Amino acid sequence: METNVTAKKKRDWFFLLPAIVVVAVMTQVPFILTIIYSTLRWNLARPDLPVRFAGVDNYLYYLKVPNFPEIPEFYSIFAQTVLITVVTLVLCTIIGFLLSILLDNKIPGVNIARTLILGPFFVMSTASGVIWKATILNTTFGWYGVVFKALGLTPVDLLSYYPIPVIVFLFTWQWMPFFVLVILAGLQGISADLVDSMRIDGASWLRATFQVKLPMITHHIRVAVMLGLIFIVKEFGLILVTTAGGPGTRSYTLPYAVYMEVFNASNVGRAGALAVMMVALTLLAVNVLYRSIKKRGASFA
Q1: 194-226 residue pLDDT tens
Q2: What is the domain-level CATH number for residue 165?
Q3: What are phi and psi of 262, to 5 degrees?
Q4: How far is 78 from 282, CA to CA, in rounded Å?
Q5: Which domain holds residue 159?
Q6: 232 in a domain, yes or no?
Q7: Cα separations (Å) of 4 from 10, 13, 14, 15?
Q8: Among 69, 163, 246, 301, which residue has the fewest nearby CB atoms (within 10 Å)?
């Protein structure tokens, strides 16, 4: 019996091997190359200079040690990344949950409403960014500017004066439908008999929603937050086409800083070091969320 089980496990690993190889090649090989690049002093704008081994100097440049007297903007960019990501996750979770509660009802047109709400999730971030910047938030011919001028008010350039709130709003608009998709799936999985029992027992809407339904879909919410963290923290297309990181570096995030290090500063080594630190921090946050999900699942087992 044990021999058959062992043989079956070996066959299972054999069938999984192609998928493991593909995932490893597509994810781990680029990451290993990024780690290698992060140890080099390599400037694409100066082909006359040789590529040299720099060790951890590129990391020390961002982390500010005594050997580097200039204070880099890594910590402010890191704080902005955390602020944008956390606020977006909170808004996506709260708004996504409330909209999911509304859509979890059998009312006329609910299927059309679900389709419309999921629409922004399927639009390219760069395309939606151009639309928001050019046709909506523009102070001259955008809807925002036209409405304000019609009311006798002077429109303020939101992208210049309030870049982070605008970025948070656009990120929430882009990724909130994903949270609705996951949370609504959890609500749809609640037994109809349980819902009928709550109605028979006379439970109010607030009590049924927040004391019964919410605890039952906690797992779905945490999964949505974990995947949303991965999606949002690497997003830079909206920033590129709206604020371009400005004014100055006020709306920079770590992915956008990596982009600028490569395509503006032409510094491969520092871009690689910044990318490695970003991946490490993201994996740490995802690991914490995953452990909480696993612990939560074990408590219900």
Answers
A1: 777 777 777 777 777 787 788 888 888 888 998
A2: 1.10.3720.10
A3: -85, -50
A4: 12
A5: 74-251
A6: yes
A7: 10, 14, 15, 17
A8: 301
